[in-house]
Amino acid sequence: MKNLESLMAAYLLVWAVFFVYHLALGRRIARLQTELDLLKERLKHIQDSVPGL
Amino acid sequence: MARGVKTPWLSTLLVAALIGGAGYAALFLAPAERTMGLIQRIFYFHVPSAWAGFVAFGITFVACIAYLVKRAPKWDWLAVSAAEMGVVFFTVVLVTGPIWAKPVWGIWWTWDARLTSTFVLWVLYLSYLVLRTLVGDAERRAVVSAVFGVFAFLDVPLVYLSIWFWRTQHPQPVIGGGGMDRHMWPPFLLCWAALLGVMVLLLRQRYRLEALRHEVQEISLTADFAASQGGFSPVPRGGSRVPSLKGAAR
């Protein structure tokens, strides 16, 4: 079983790259979604406060 | 999973099954290579990652041209999303390659034509992503990066053909090169299908991020306009706190 460690390291790294990227994407989306919710809330508040806007 | 992203359960399950099947086929079903032995099995994820990366850069190329012709933001979103996919897949290529090279060649890396052109390709698309952070205006950013995206794609055929153009230490390509044993094809194609599936799922998620970013910008502008009309202070960006309205209303 020569080079088994190298093979395992390569396979682990492949999936680690994809997994870390997937997590990072999820965090970026969650942050933007929070920002969007706050902006919508703020906009609704302004529109409710100023009649005719 | 982030809010605002519906999980495509069926396709996720399908890709998970493909990944499991591909891993099993690459490790246990594919025939052992006579001279390299076990380490040759890196090939089943190294080469399909490169192919998936080429597909991603191809999507970027088409989307850049489509943006330059039609000027619809969705093409810019697709271009940047696919470029990021390509960078991720070529990161895998550049990580797994040296792990294979060390036991086979005795060195981690050599600046031969195939390896250098692949590294240049990765740097080019990384530059494409960095370039986008340097241009503030959205329309100008999209145009500049679309032109750069078309230019960067010129390196893709160069990477593939580098083996014919120059003497290189890298093994011959699977198609049009030295070929491979017919029993190696099914595991190889299964691995490629699995990685393409991963790419499609991640691309969908990344595209959603870009669409969300656009939505935030649009609502931010509307909120700023409404705030100025109603005498409110401008809406702060960042999403970390709820903007205070105390004393702002007339």
Report on this model:
The complex is a heterodimer of chains A (53) and B (250). Chain A is an all-alpha fold and 53 residues long. Chain A has one helix at 4-49. Chain A is rod-shaped. The mean pLDDT of chain A is 89. By secondary structure, chain B is mainly alpha-helical. Chain B is built from seven helices and no strands. At the A-B interface, helix 1 of A face helix 2, helix 3 and helix 7 of B.
Order of helices and strands of chain B: HHHHHHH
Question: Can you tell me the residue ranges of chain B where pLDDT is under 50 for at least 5 consecutive residues?
Answer: 239-250
Q: What is the chains' assembly state? A: heterodimer
| SS strand fraction of chain B | under 5%
Structural class of the secondary structure composition of chain B?
Answer: mainly alpha
How many separate domains of chain B? 1
Percentage of residues in DSSP E strands of chain A = under 5%
Which chain pair has the greatest contact? Answer: A-B, 39 and 52 residues
Using only C-alpha atoms, the radius of gyration of chain B works out to 23 Å
Q: Which consecutive residue ranges of chain A, at least 5 long each, have pLDDT under 50?
A: none
In one word, what is the shape of chain A?
A: rod-shaped
Overall geometric form of chain B = elongated
N/C terminus separation of chain B? 41 Å
Biggest sheet record of chain B: none
Task: Reconstruct the topology from this structure.
The complex is a heterodimer of chains A (53) and B (250).
Chain A: H1 4-49
Chain B: H1 9-29, H2 43-70, H3 73-105, H4 113-134, H5 138-152, H6 155-165, H7 185-230
